[in-house]
Write a structure and sequence with these properties.
It is built from three helices and 27 strands. By secondary structure, it is mainly beta. The strands form three sheets. Strands 1-2-5-8-11-14-17-20-23 form a nine-stranded parallel beta sheet. It is elongated.
Length: 279
């Protein structure tokens, strides 16, 4: 009898462990008919693995996502939901947990003050996916700070001071993005390596398409890099692994260039150094 009870308990425990908790879906809308009218409040209520669907509308807030969530913008007739941090001193959204998905938003408005250095999207975690977003009117469009294995695809990144700012980050993939008309560099990559930058349209940024400082062993291929007032790709001496200048030939031959006023690829000590506030 005791043996049967023990066996029954083992069966019940096995069954219970195989049942997974179903993830919740929270709806955010500005019309008052949804679960929340604030994305930040929905993030606070959600648990790891949940999904937050945000309907069209304007959301004036700064958001810290510290859980593994799917945030999905839903066009309900008014376009992508717009997250605008104008008047709020802080990054528009910070990805502060691993494995977040950010899909289908319009991020803008952290450009309040050029001296604040805030970002539309700041990534300080790993394994996130950022797709189909518009990121504009920020000091930094997307900022990586010690982030790894993130995927950035199919985004429109324009009219920021810097399009993508990548610092001490590695193994990130940035492909199939439109990075254009930013006021400084399209990509600024510093003290970072092993990132993949492929199949992007990098055009009409005011100074340089891609600037590398102390950034060796990054894979930069199959990009269209055109119409910059300075150069297409700017590479300092520390960005050539072991001073191997063959990497420059690879950058030249593996990308498409057009009408960069000071040349397609510029190298050497004549490239200016950009100090960072947290060095």
């Amino acid at each position: 009898m005791i043996r049967r009870i023990i066996l029954l308990l083992l069966v019940l425990l096995t069954f219970a462990s195989s049942v997974t908790t179903q993830a919740d879906i929270f709806i955010v809308d500005t019309n008052g008919d949804a679960d929340y009218d604030s994305i930040r409040d929905a993030v606070r209520a959600a648990d790891n693995g949940d999904t937050i669907e945000v309907h069209s509308g304007a959301y004036n807030e700064s958001i810290n996502v510290n859980k593994t969530l799917v945030l999905k913008g839903i066009d309900t007739g008014g376009g992508k939901p717009a997250i605008n941090s104008e008047g709020i001193f802080g990054d528009t959204i910070v990805l502060n947990a691993d494995g977040i998905v950010l899909n289908g938003f319009d991020f803008k408005g952290s450009y309040n003050n050029r001296d604040t250095r805030y970002a539309g999207i700041k990534v300080i975690s790993d394994d996130n996916t950022i797709i189909y977003n518009s990121i504009r009117d920020n000091y930094k469009g997307i900022e990586f700070h010690r982030g790894k294995n993130n995927i950035i695809r199919y985004n429109n990144i324009s009219n920021n001071n810097y399009g993508l700012w990548i610092f001490r980050s590695e193994n990130n993939t940035m492909s199939d993005n439109n990075v254009s008309e930013n006021l400084n560099n399209g990509f600024f990559i510093k003290s970072s390596q092993l990132n993949n930058i492929t199949h992007n349209d990098i055009n009409n940024n005011r100074r340089t398409g891609i600037k590398l400082e102390n950034a060796p062993r990054n894979r930069i291929i199959n990009n269209n890099i055109s119409y910059h007032s300075e150069v297409g790709i700017s590479v300092d001496d520390y960005s050539c692994s072991d001073n191997d200048k063959s990497v420059i030939d690879e950058y030249k031959s593996s990308n498409s260039f057009k009408n960069n006023k000071q040349g397609d690829v510029k190298t050497g000590s004549g490239i200016s150094y950009t100090p960072l506030e947290d060095e």
